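Reading a protein record of the kind used here takes only a little practice. An example makes this concrete, so a full record is given next.
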Amino acid sequence: MDAIIIAISYLLMIVGVIGTILPALPGLILVLMGIIIYGWHIGFDVLGYSFLTTMVLLTIIGTFVDILGSMVGAKKYGASKLSILSMVVGLVFGFFTLGLPGLIIGPAVAVIFTEMFKGKSLNEALKVTLGIVLGFLSGIAFRFVIGIAMTISFTIKIILIYFSV
């Protein structure tokens, strides 16, 4: 039974780490769910309450910094709320039509057109787009690193539990 629970936990974590890059999946939450399912199975006291607290805090921090990064990048370069909304639409549309490259191309094109529609020059629209895309990509990178760190920490924790190292 332990092997099945570990497999389910890792499956959730792998999907979660992928979800830190893809817009449709709640990445860090899935990683945390994998850890919680395993903790529920063996007992949270065995996994360690400080370990679980750290994982919850990393999930919250990763999510907060991601949102903050996108907003700071957008506001710093003068993006409007409509541009931010069009970025999200472009992100989803870009991903589903172009795959991974669409994660960058879709939002960039959507924001450029939105800013130009609002009367900005191409140069101004490109500046806003750069800010939004850089903020967005930095948020993705941060979430990805946290997801990997959580998965590695979990793996080390399992090794310590099972091999009493």
About this structure: The chain has a mean pLDDT of 87. Residues 13 and 151 are 7 Å apart (CA to CA). The chain has one domain: 2-163. DSSP finds seven helices and no strands in the chain.
